[in-house]
Amino acid sequence: MDSITDSQAAKSAELVAQLQQGGQAALAELFMQNRDRLRRMVRARLDDRVAGRADPSDVLQEAFLDASRQLNDYLDDPAVPPFLWLRLLTGQRLMQVHRRHLGAQMRDAKQEVSLNRGSMPQANSCSLSRQVVGRLTTPSLAAIRIEMQIRLQQLLDSLEPLDREVLSLRHFEELSNSEVALELGISTAAASKRYIRALERFRTMLAEIPGFLDG
Q1: Which helix (H) or strand (E) holds 195?
Q2: Main-chain dihedrals φ then ψ at residue 120, nearest 5 degrees
Q3: Strands 112-115 and 118-121, how do they pair?
Q4: Per-chain mean pLDDT for the chain
Q5: What's phi and psi for 28, nearest 5 deg?
Q6: pTM of the model
Q7: Residues 163, 205: contact at Cβ < 8 Å?
Q8: Hey, is 145 helix, strand or coil?
Q9: Core-most of 103, 163, 169, 205, by most CB within 10 Å?
C-alpha cells in the first residue's frame, strides 16, 4: 500500500481489523456504507446495450455474495484496502453480466481495462456522457441534450483509454487520488499528474461544444 498516506493505511488497517473481529456482520455494514460508491462504478461501466436488462442493484447484490464467500481469503492477505477489494469484486461481477447478456457481441479485449489487480469493463463513454448531460437543467440546454450527449460521447471516445479511465475514477466514481493510484498501479504523484493532464485535455475539448461550459 505504498501509494497511500499513513493515515489512509491506518484507516484501512482499522477496517480490516473490524472485518476480522466482526466477520459477516461487519462485511454487511461495510458494504452498505460503500453501496453508493459501488453503484456509481456500475453505472459508469455498464454497457449501454445491457442497461435496460441489468439492474445495478442486482449486480451489487451478487457482488456482496461474492464478497461474503471470499471474505476469509481476503483477510488472509488484505493486499488492498477493503473498499477497493469490494470494488474489484463488483467490477468482476459486472463483467460476468456483460458476458451473460452479450455473449458473442462482447466488445473486444481493448474494451476491458487492465488495472493493478485484474480487468474490469472500461468506463463507458455513453453512460458517462448521459450522466453529464443529465445534470443540465436550464431550458436552453435541456432542449439540445441529445445533440450534446452525442457530441460529448464522441469527445470521450477520442480520449486515450487511460485518460478516460482517470476522469471516470475521479469524477464519476469519486475515488481519491491515492485510490486511483492503487487502482492503476502507479504513484500518487503520477496519478495526480495524469488526472490534471486528462482534465485539461477534456476541458479543451468541451470548449468546442457551443455553450456547454457556460451551462
Answers
A1: helix 188-206
A2: -150, 165
A3: antiparallel
A4: 82
A5: -60, -40
A6: 0.80
A7: no
A8: helix
A9: 169
Better-predicted residue by pLDDT, 155 or 214: 155
Contact 30, 15 (CB under 8 A): yes
Burial of 106: CB neighbours in 10 Å, binned 0-12, 13-18, 19+: middle
Looking up cell 456547454 gives: 212
CB 95 within 8 A of CB 112: yes
| Tens-digit pLDDT profile for residues 9-52 | 888 889 999 999 999 999 999 999 999 999 999 988 888 787 77
115: cell is: 488495472
Neighbours of 16 (CB within 10 A): 17
Instruction: Render pLDDT for 176-207 as a digit per residue (tens, 0 to 9).
Output: 999 999 888 888 999 999 999 989 988 888 78
| CA–CA gap between residue 215 and residue 168 (Å, rounded) | 21
In angstroms, how far is CA 205 from the centroid of its own chain? 22
| Helix or strand (DSSP H, E) at 22 | helix 6-33
Report the alpha-carbon distance of residue 43 to residue 41 in Å, rounded.
Answer: 5
31 and 15 in contact (C-beta within 8 Å)?
no
CA 107-112-116 angle, 5° bins:
170
CA distance 201 to 188: 20
